[in-house]
Every structure is written in structure tokens, then in C-alpha cells.
Amino acid sequence: MADAKDKEILFELLQDCTQATSKIAKKVKLPRQTVDYRIKKLEKEKVIKKYTINVDYQKLGYNRHSLYLDMKSISHEEVNKYLKLVTDIQEVSCCYMLHGASKWKLYISVWTKTIERYDEIQTRIMSKFKKYIKNYLSFQGVRSYTYLARRLNPKAKAKVDIKHKMDNIELKPIDWKLIKLLKKNSRTPVVDLAKKLKVSVNTIMRRTKWLKDKEIIERFYPILHMRKLGYTEYTFISRIDPSYDKELQNFLEYTRKDNRFIIVIKAVGYVNLYYAFIVKDGNELHEITSKVEDVLGDGLLETHKIEVDEMIS
Known about the structure:
By secondary structure, this protein is an alpha+beta fold. The protein has helices at residues 4-15, 21-28, 32-44, 76-87, 115-128, 173-184, 190-197, 201-213, 245-257, 282-296, and strands at residues 48-55, 63-71, 92-98, 106-112, 133-146, 161-163, 217-224, 232-240, 261-268, 273-279, 300-306, 308-311.
């Protein structure tokens, strides 16, 4: 089990996993060699699953679409046979297998510039799983707030990634290739990235800096195994009466202040609210769900609780 110092180190990695170990060591008040050792240990124990990046696709003119599939009994092996084709689609940002207790069994996040392109991708995905699908749910995100694990170090100020402004920045082919590699491992050495993309190290450094300066890449961070840190992550998707705008604003304010929340998405469609948080036990789960129900009041029309089994991409 990770101790308090491990959590402080993980908190710093969540802010920027590319920062120098010496900088992290200074913040957590440990020798650099100790921080190096602890990070390697956390990687070996799979507390750190992988290093990736958070991309603001809205800066590129893309809208976020969430697709949930409720499926008949299907093994991970069978899912994986189909998902290679799905995750290779450039607009698919991530895919999760959901816990068997959840109504929905598979979650796919898709970013497209047009609703026509999303319809094409959704049809393609659902065609692959056609014989297994019992039902599906789809909605479009409008604004999102990503806090990640603030509670790992409540005394420190956590970075917030906000996606809300549409732009139409054009990427070069090298940028898309670089993003794809960084999503797989955002700590890949620059020299290795240059070799894989067959360009100079200076080109990689220049393009990465440009992507960061434009805030297209919002964050370099690790994906954590929360259960190994003593937490369980829960996601809820809810249908809210649009006329209860004041209650919705109160909810957003509540999630900004409660450091257990890690992401909140305001959406449009049958479902118009998505949020996730991490808790230590059932008491905290009950506390938060009761608070949410109290804040949203009669505006809360329907809610689905979701647990993630594993990230596929």
C-alpha cells in the first residue's frame, strides 16, 4: 500500500509527469534518489499503469461524444478482437471496459468535427458488436473540468484542465503522429520519438512545445490504479431537467470544492451530466451521492452508476 509520501509524489506526477525528479523531490521534501526509487516501485507494482497526455480536442474543432454499450455476455478476449479496429480510429480518444454490475459494459469516447462523422463512426462501432448489443446510449459533451486526484495531496494546489472553447487549429501530420505516441507513453525519450517519426530531435521538441503553448496538450500525466491506493473510482451519468439551471450551477460549484471529484462534464442529449469521483469506502460513496441528490433536487431525473474494470486504450 502506498504511503503519504507516495501519494504526494503521484500528485506531482499528475500535475506534470515530465517535470524533473529533482523538482518533485524539492516539493515533497525527499532526496531525489528516494523519489526515483519510489516512482520505479510504483511503476513495478502497477500503481502507475501508464503515462499519457490529456488533449483538448475542442481546440482542433472537435466535439466530444460518449458512446455506452450494454451487451450480452462477452469476454474480454472477444472484445479485444473487435477493438483494435475501433481504437485505431483517429477520433477515438479512449475506451473502457466497465464493471459487470454497471448497466453499460463498454464506454468509448469519440471526438469529431461534424455530427455526420460521429454517426459514421458510431455505425461502424455498433456494426462490429452487432450480435452482442442489447442497448446503447450516446450524448455530446459541451464543457468539462478535469481535476484528477486532488485528494492525494489536499494541501497542494491542483491543476485544472477545462475544455469549453471551440477553435479550429489545424495540425500537421507530424503533430497527429506525435500525439498518438505520447498518448501511449508520454515519458518516451525525445530521441526515441524522433527515431520513430524519422525526424530530428529539434523537430520533436519544437512540435511538442507548440502543442503545449497552444494548450492542445493540456497535461502529461500517469493513469493510476486507484484501488491500489485505497480508493474506488465511481462514475455517474445523469439526466437533468434543463430548467433546473441554478441547481446545476450549484452542483458544479460543489464539485469544484470537493477534492474527491476528478472529472465533471456538462453534456447535451438524453444524458446531460457526467461526473466521477474517488472514495475510500461505502460511507463516502453514500455521503457524496446523498449530497448530489440534495443539490440537484427534483432536477435529477435519472442516474446510472458505473465502475470501470480496465482501460483498453
